[in-house]
Design a protein that fits this description.
Helix content is 26%, strand content 24%. By secondary structure, it is α/β, with parallel strands linked by helices. It has one domain: FAD/NAD(P)-binding domain (3-Layer(bba) Sandwich).
Length: 160
């Protein structure tokens, strides 16, 4: 991702989004799946619109009792299948990596929030931050009032 031009809206990095009110704002969240799963449900409570540029999906477990390692993968797959009915959206939320490369986190309503009308999951990678918002790799400029960069995205050299 490059910074072609200077983004002229509010740019929050890491945990700076916590405790903020996004009422009436359109917000872009650029983060890996495990970070997006934590950020999006909170931001979507008050934001007018949320565009999620999920850099890489991660497995999410339902909020249940602790599971033995052997059951985590089938439970995470079943949870995704039951929580996300649309096959295309479910495919975009399915990780390509092996199950145990990251510890799965609990789904804090991420899947449910992504299916709300004011939330949009965007599969194209972010190409640049532009004055009005975010340009994705397919060339579309997504105009937003605020951009939230997850911890991983906030530490990338091209955003400094």
């Amino acid at each position: 991702m490059t910074t072609q031009g200077t983004y002229d809206g509010q740019l929050l990095r890491g945990d700076e989004w916590r405790g903020r009110d996004f009422t009436g704002q359109s917000v872009a969240v650029i983060a890996h799946g495990h970070e997006a799963a934590a950020i999006v449900p909170e931001v979507a409570r008050t934001a007018r619109a949320v565009k999620v540029f999920q850099e890489e999906p991660d497995w999410l477990l339902p909020a249940t009792l602790p599971l033995p390692a052997l059951l985590r993968r089938p439970v995470a797959r079943l949870h995704l299948r039951l929580a996300v009915r649309d096959p295309w959206t479910r495919r975009r939320l399915t990780p390509d990596h092996r199950f145990n490369t990251r510890r799965p986190r609990t789904d804090g309503h991420y899947y449910a929030v992504l299916q709300q009308p004011h939330c949009t999951l965007i599969s194209w990678p972010v190409y640049a931050l532009v004055p009005g918002g975010v340009r994705s790799a397919e060339g579309i400029e997504h105009h937003v009032d605020c951009i939230i960069l997850g911890t991983t995205a906030a530490h990338r050299e091209d955003l400094q």
